[in-house]
From TrEMBL, chain A:
Keywords: ATP-binding, Nucleotide-binding. It holds the Pfam family ABC_tran. GO terms for molecular function: ATP binding; ATP hydrolysis activity. It comes from the Bacteria. Residues 1-214 form the ABC transporter domain. It comes from Bifidobacterium italicum. PROSITE patterns: ABC_TRANSPORTER_1 (PS00211), ABC_TRANSPORTER_2 (PS50893). This is ABC transporter ATP-binding protein. SMART domains: AAA. The keyword ATP-binding applies.
Automatic annotation (TrEMBL), chain B:
One of its GO terms (molecular function) is ABC-type transporter activity. Signal peptide: none annotated. It is found in: Cell membrane. This is ABC transporter permease. The lineage of its organism: Bacteria, Bacillati, Actinomycetota, Actinomycetes, Bifidobacteriales. InterPro entries: ABC-2_transporter_component (IPR051449), ABC2_TM (IPR013525), ABC2_TM_bact-type (IPR047817).
Length: 233, 399
């Protein structure tokens, strides 16, 4: 699925993995999260190889699916994941309160998640990813299917977290979503075809939007491959 | 430990919010157990038999049996048996009783034959009693005339030789007083009693089966739901490991089965009327071990299924054979390999212990080897499940 990807992300940076569905983004994210072990190659986070024995606590994850327990309340979901990260007592209680406040779910904290709207679930999912105060936050398609208001909400929080020094890695297949990041890695068929800021990518491909840039890069690559084949013949 | 506890609490909270499953766990087994008692007791009493022109003595004996006798003419009897309204038609064929069985339901045929045999035995007994009484009467008549003869001879001198001869004749005409080799049956119950019903023998088996099946389904499904809902991925990105996940699950479902089996036992013993001769805590302990073996099997098997539907399919493969071989049916007449296969299944041991304790009143000393075997099954399933988990974590997920 993935082929020769080499990416390094620094603290406080927001890196966006951009590419069409089925391009290998989720595979890459799963590998980074240590849920999937690559057949070759290595992944290191904070100097430790996946699957992590010690740094797991420092990595927060928001999967593509909402991935919440629908038949318990929002605060029980937060508590449960907090406890799995070894939090307890007062520390856990105040963190749960803080996150519910942050994601504006304070009033429906006792509601069962199955009664939540899609946007509320997304916000809770983000809160769960943040429960152990991770230094690296990995988000798989965090804003898919959200209305503009919710999207702005999530982005504002991600920026704030990055400003506090957290490293953020997110995937998206929506081009103008990626425009908000300072760095984009374009992924196509398991390969990184561009790794730069949105402006520089557009500049280099002499296009106005990321969409056009993506298509231009795609054409370029196809041409190059054809060229290669002709040469071999 | 804290992680196991967190998982334990979460699963129980989930169940607390899921009324349908709770109803399934508590109400459904009780209703089914009650229905089974009614059904199994009902069939024991009511086999219908048509009687055509039977001798009065036989009819009287048949009336004493459990069978329900309808006296009809030959034509009507033919209709009844053709429609399946009676299990047999009894008629006279010369001097012999002719029993015409409907024959599709072997159980009913057996009941008919049991009733016929009982009636015939009764008939024989009354006949023998009559014969005995007649002989005794004949004997005492002969005695009386002999006495008269002796007296008349005493009054006048007679030939002693003749008296001796008379005595000899009398002795040979004495009725034989030899009786049958076995004259009656005394029934003594080692366990149970006459008031025990057919279902009582199966009650413990059904309790075991219920616990096993329900825990298998619910635990297997909740793990599969966790996988399809994406929470498993999120789960695996936390510091929890496979053993802790399994322990949390087994613990939570074990606790649930503790409550479930206590409730089922309480209702079935005090309201449905199950016998429970042994100590209750041993029964509950067995139920819990059985349920935990079922959870670990469910978790192990759920690794093979991608949807809840497949869990049900897996149940057909992993649980139904256990139900068939656990002792619900008597296997003593089946091939030895099949009995050996039954001995390889946890449910068999659980059911054995439940029967020993509930029906025969066995204590810890009599059942610990079986309980230990059950625990060994639990451990093996658990270990296999943990290994499977580690592999699952490492393997590349198929899209």
């Amino acid at each position: 699925m993935l082929d020769d990807i080499s990416l390094t992300v620094d603290a406080g940076e927001i890196l966006c993995l951009l590419g069409p569905s089925g391009g290998g983004k989720t595979t890459l994210v799963d590998a980074i999260m240590g849920v999937r072990i690559p057949q070759r190659g290595t992944i290191e986070v904070f100097g430790e190889r996946a699957p992590y024995a010690h740094v797991r606590r420092r990595i927060g994850f928001m999967p593509q699916e909402t991935a919440l327990y629908e038949d318990i309340s929002a605060q029980d979901n937060l508590r449960f994941f907090g406890e799995l990260f070894g939090m307890r007592g007062k520390e856990l209680r105040s963190r749960v309160d803080e996150l519910l406040e942050l994601t504006d779910l304070q009033e429906s904290r006792r509601k069962l998640v199955r009664d939540y709207s899609g946007g509320m679930k997304r916000r809770l999912s983000l809160a769960v990813a943040l429960v152990q105060r991770p230094d690296l936050l990995v988000l798989d398609e965090p804003t898919v299917g959200l209305d503009p208001e919710q999207r702005v909400f999530i982005w504002r929080h991600l920026r704030a977290l990055a400003a506090q020094g957290a490293t953020i890695l997110l995937t998206t297949h929506v081009m103008d979503e990626a425009q908000r990041c300072e760095r984009i890695a374009m992924i196509r068929n398991g390969r990184v075809i561009a790794d730069d800021s949105p402006e520089r990518i557009c500049e280099r491909t002499r296009t106005g939007t990321l969409e056009e840039a993506f298509l231009a890069l795609e054409r370029h690559r196809a041409d190059a491959m054809e060229h290669e084949e002709v040469r071999h013949a | 430990m804290r992680r196991i506890r967190a998982l334990f609490m979460r699963i129980l909270t989930q169940f607390g919010h899921d009324r349908r499953t709770l109803a399934l766990l508590f109400v459904a087994p009780v209703i089914v157990l009650w229905l089974l008692t009614v059904i199994l007791d009902g069939t024991a009493a009511s086999v219908h038999v048509a009687a055509v022109d039977l001798p009065d003595a036989l009819s009287a004996q048949l009336e004493k049996t459990d069978a329900h006798i309808e006296t009809v003419d030959g034509e009507r009897a033919g209709e009844l048996i053709a429609d399946g309204d009676v299990a047999a038609v009894l008629s006279m064929d010369g001097g012999a009783l002719r029993v015409e069985l409907e024959g599709t339901d072997a159980g009913k045929s057996q009941q008919v034959m049991a009733a016929v045999n009982e009636a015939m035995a009764g008939l024989r007994e009354t006949y023998q009693n009559d014969v005995e009484a007649a002989r005794r009467k004949a004997g005492s008549d002969a005695e009386a005339s002999m006495e008269r003869l002796r007296r008349s001879m005493a009054s006048q001198p007679a030939d002693p030789h003749m008296v001796e001869q008379l005595e000899r004749i009398m002795a040979s005409s004495q009725p034989e007083t030899k009786s049958m080799a076995v004259s009656g049956v005394d029934v003594v119950h080692l366990h149970g009693g006459e008031d025990w019903k057919v279902f009582d023998y199966y009650g413990p088996v059904f309790i075991g089966i219920f616990l096993f099946v329900f825990t298998f389904i619910t635990s297997g499904m909740s793990l599969v739901t966790e996988r399809t809902g994406g929470t498993m991925t999120r789960f695996l990105t936390t510091p929890i490991n496979g053993v802790q996940i399994l322990a949390g699950y087994a613990g939570a479902f074990g606790a649930l089965s503790l409550v479930q089996s206590s409730v089922i036992l309480w209702i079935s013993v005090s309201f449905i009327g199950f016998p429970c001769v042994g100590v209750v805590w041993l029964v509950v302990l067995t139920c819990m071990l059985l349920a935990m073996a079922s959870v670990s099997l469910g978790l192990l098997v759920s690794a093979l299924s991608k949807t809840p539907f497949q869990v049900v399919q897996m149940m057909l493969l992993f649980v139904v054979p256990q139900i068939l071989l656990c002792g619900l049916f008597d296997l003593s007449g089946s091939p030895s390999w099949m009995q050996a296969l039954g001995r390889c299944m946890p449910l068999t041991y659980g059911v054995d212990v439940l029967r020993d304790v509930m029906l025969r009143g066995e204590g810890w000393g009599g059942v610990w080897p079986d309980l230990l075997t059950l625990f060994a099954f639990l451990t093996v399933f658990f270990a296999l499940g943990a290994v499977g988990f580690r592999k699952k974590r490492a393997r590349v997920r198929q899209r």
